[in-house]
Amino acid sequence: MKCDRCDEDAVVHEIVVQNGQKVEKHLCSSCAKAEGLVSDPPSVLSAPLSKLVMSSSIIAKPQPTSPRACGGCGQTWAEFRKLGLLGCPECYDVFDEKLGPLIQRAHEGAAEHCGKTPRRSAEIIDRRRLAASLRKQLLEAVDAEHYERAAELRDRLRHVEDEEPLLGESPGEGAEDRA
Amino acid sequence: MSDPMSTVEGVQWLRTDGREGDIVLSSRVRLARNIAGLPFLTRATIDDRRHVMRLVRKHSRAAEIGEAMEWFDLESASRSEREILVERHLISRQHAKGDEPRALTVSMPEEQLAVMVNEEDHLRIQLIRSGLALTDAWDQINRFDDQLESRVGYAFHPRMGYLTACPTNVGTGVRVSVMLHLPGLKLTGEIDKARRAAKAMSLAVRGFYGEGSEAAGDLYQISNQTTLGKSEEQILEEFERSIIPDVIRFERQARETLLDRRRPMLEDRVQRALGALLYARLLNADEAMQLLSQVRLGVLLGVIEGVDLRTIAELQLLTQPAHLQRVVGETLDQAQRRRARADFVPPRPGG
């Protein structure tokens, strides 16, 4: 992404409030400095090294308004803004907060899917919900020292989780439970 | 690649006996889908792309759709082969470009069902039929979609629906398009009013070759732009019961007005168009489209006799640059094509 004020690559991404309006700013380091958004980089860094550091994901993405990269594919919000395309299904959850308003604007205010649900995904979603509910009940049973019930819940949970691999499952969810 | 594309005879959407066929050329439903467990194409590796192609090739062949699926590997296709596919509305211009592994699979010989593999999404499935036939198109594509989904699994989100690389397609991932021939509205100068009305309803209006193409031959594609918040059936219902019938009514009124009040002008226009098609020595593609459009209007209004609508429909396709060269059997530059087009085009009376 280019700097808003010149042709350099933007390395500082900020959302500031001006006259009550949120404004996104994407600036190169010198323009960011001119706007008072960053202080001088330490001068001890040699040019190639500073380039390396500046291009690293830590510096290129200021906190706290900056997006983190998607854990599923590594794409950043800035990359999405440049391409207009997301990197993977998980991006929808990772960037949910920022995507929400964009999606609503593109779809006449709608925020939720209404329509066809794939049969297979519907099963997967049902199973995921069932597993989550069983897990919760299991913890409650253990807490209450109802061991017989806990054992029964554990078996049912195992049965649900042992069915064929959940193809439609988003990475991260469920995977850690099996690990 | 074998050459099933050398003829247009089997192409279902070129048929002229569809419902409202005097105005509606074709109806199309397109679905954007991605396979679960893989990154979208912006982040996909070459291996991911090949994996998608293998899955789609295997499972689309197994789907029961009543026609054989032909597979086109676009990596190895020549430029002219890709152009032919674009002209037949089987792939987008975007899909024709680039070097990454990507493909098309299409049902032959009617070419109703086509799947672009590795375009903007893993799958862009489309179903085209002649005339106003959105419900039929939806039923067919929905069955195919179910079959494919049960074998490959789609990226789906309980709240957001089908997940697509571009958030403007998320939800149903459905785009419904109807191709309309509106020479009446064009001649009476009301077409811009219709365009504005469509825009006000969040509908897209495009030309014969989609985004960016001018409405050559008075052909307009109207399609939905939003994919979230309405079910597929709701979108189809709006199109089939209200939006398209309204446009049809306006076009019919315009044609009647032309016949009743401006008949000499109309007759002059369409006869001149026929004369130009028959006697011109050089024709460029857009000009041919425009003349064919006016001849079509003349035939439909009974001003021109002895020209077959099917012939006009085929000529609209066969006069496109890549098809023309395929028909002639030679590679031609632009000047040569204008000459060849003029030689080829006389609409043979009776087809």
From the structure above, extract its key features.
heterodimer, A: mainly alpha, two-stranded antiparallel ribbon, 48% helix, elongated, disordered C terminus, B: alpha+beta, 8-stranded antiparallel β-sheet, two-stranded antiparallel sheet, 10 strands
Describe this structure in words.
The complex is a heterodimer of chains A (179) and B (351). Helices cover 48% and strands 8% of the residues of chain A. Chain A contains nine helices and two strands. Chain A has helices at residues 29-34, 47-55, 57-60, 77-83, 91-94, 96-106, 119-143, 147-162, 175-178; strands spanning 12-18, 21-27. Chain A has a two-stranded antiparallel ribbon. In chain A, a hairpin with a 2-residue loop joins β1 and β2. In chain A, α7 packs antiparallel against α8. In chain B, the strands form two sheets. Chain B has an eight-stranded antiparallel beta sheet with strand order 2-3-4-5-1-8-10-9, covered by helices on one side. Chain B has a two-stranded antiparallel ribbon with strand order 6-7. Chain B has twelve helices and ten strands. Chain B is of the alpha+beta class. At the A-B interface, α5, α6 and α7 of A face α4, β6, β7 and α7 of B.
Please give the radius of gyration of chain B in angstroms.
21 Å
User: What's the overall geometry of chain A?
Assistant: elongated
Average pLDDT of chain B, rounded to a whole number, is 92
What percent of the residues of chain A sit in helical stretches (DSSP H or I)? 40-55%
- Count the beta strands of chain B: 10
Looking across the biggest beta sheet of chain B, what order are the strands in? 2-3-4-5-1-8-10-9
Number of helices, counting only DSSP H or I runs of 4 residues or more of chain A: 9
List the helices and strands of chain B in order. EHEHHEEEHEEEHHEEHHHHHH
Structural class of chain B: alpha+beta
Class per helix and strand makeup of chain A: mainly alpha
Question: What's the order of the H and E elements of chain A?
Answer: EEHHHHHHHHH
Q: Number of helical runs of chain B?
A: 12
